[in-house]
Amino acid sequence: MTADDAPIRVLLVEDNDAYRDTIVFLLRRRDEVAVVGEVSDGSSAADACAEQRADVVVVDYRLPDVSGAVAAAEIRERCPQASVVFLSAFAGTEELEAARIAGVTLVRKDQGVDALVEAIRAAASRGLI
What we know:
The protein has helices at 17-27, 45-52, 68-78, 93-102, 113-126, and strands spanning 8-13, 33-39, 56-60, 83-88, 105-108.
């Protein structure tokens, strides 16, 4: 990998410890992605993004403290260079509408790591990394 092909710096925001650990493990096996941090709540996401200089923040849409939409707005304000991808177990009307309004891609958790990596790549290219 050349300097121009540096991995996409990803922050994962997921409250389910087992799922978060699994996604981190799977993403770390991919050369094009570097997991630079992980947090379990939305209120920590923006600060962690700024601290870790993430390119893409993958946010579980349903977090216990704030919605993914609120977390995405805070990330954009505090960490404007980063793009956001929503991750959700369910992609109903509410989630799809929130993703549309926020201008982000939503990936269902059952779509697998390949779909998530593809969304991360697309988000990174939108952010002009």
